[in-house]
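User: two proteins, same treatment. go.

Assistant:
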Amino acid sequence: MFSKTPRVFFTLLIQDIHLMKHLAIVLTIAALTFSQNASACDCTSNGPFLTAAPAAQLVGLVKIKKYLTFSQINGHQMPVSMEVEIVDKYQGPEERKTITVWGDDGALCRPYLNQFKVGSYYVIAFFPNSMITIDTIQKPMKGMLTTSTSDYEISSCGTYWLSVDRSRKHAIGFLASTQHSVALKQLKKYFKKI
C-alpha cells in the first residue's frame, strides 16, 4: 500500500503542473485581452434620438462636406474629423454654416466617421469637443491632430444621428421605441418646443 502512495503523489503532482501551465496560459490571454480593451469606450446608452438628442448643444440637418484628417485605426486609414455644413439648425446657438466634427480614434465613445458618407444628409446631435488639451492648443507638431474649442463631437452613447431620405423629406433611425421615421418638419417642430 505504501509503494503506491509515491506513484499517486507524483501522478497528482504532474497533473497539477499541467493544470497550472494551462491556468497560466488562460490568465495571460485574459490579461492581454483586458489590457487591449481597457482604453475602449465604456458608456451606458442614453436611449433613442428623441430622448438623447435634446441634451446636445447643437441639433440640425447637416450635409457631410469632406473628411479633414485621418488616422491609422485597427490597420485601416480612417477619417477622424470631418467638415459638416449646417443646412437647417433645430436647436442650439451655433451661427456658423460649417463646423468641424471629431469622431472616434479607437478609444473614445464616438462613432467612426466613415459611416457618415460624404455628400449625404443626416440629422445629428452635436456636443462641444471634449478633447481640448494644452497640447492641442499650443503650436502643434507636424502631423499632429489638432482640435479647436469651436469644434464638435458626436456621442455613441445613445442614438445621436439619423439618416435622411431627401426624396421623402424624412429622418430615419431609432427615434423612439416604436418610431423609426419622422418628417423633417415635424422633427424641427419637436426641438423648437423643447
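Protein 2:
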Amino acid sequence: MTDAQTNHLTFALPSPCVGVCEMDEARRYCKGCLRTIPEIKIWSTASEAQKWDILQQLKTRRHDRDGIQPRRDRVKRRG
C-alpha cells in the first residue's frame, strides 16, 4: 500500500457498548453505554456525523449521571 492510499483510509468509530446491557427505566437509556434504544439501533448504519452527535450526547448524559464536568478535549469531531 502506498502512502497516498494510506492517507485516505478511514476508521469507523467503535461502538460505545461496554457489555453492560441493562436499561435504566427512569432515564430511558442503557446503564452501560448510556445510549437510548433508538441510538443503539441506528449505530451500525449511522453516518460518522451521526455517531459523533451521539457521542456528544453521551458526554452530557455521563455528566448528568456522575455530576462530573465533561472534558471538552476528549471527544472531538474530525474533519
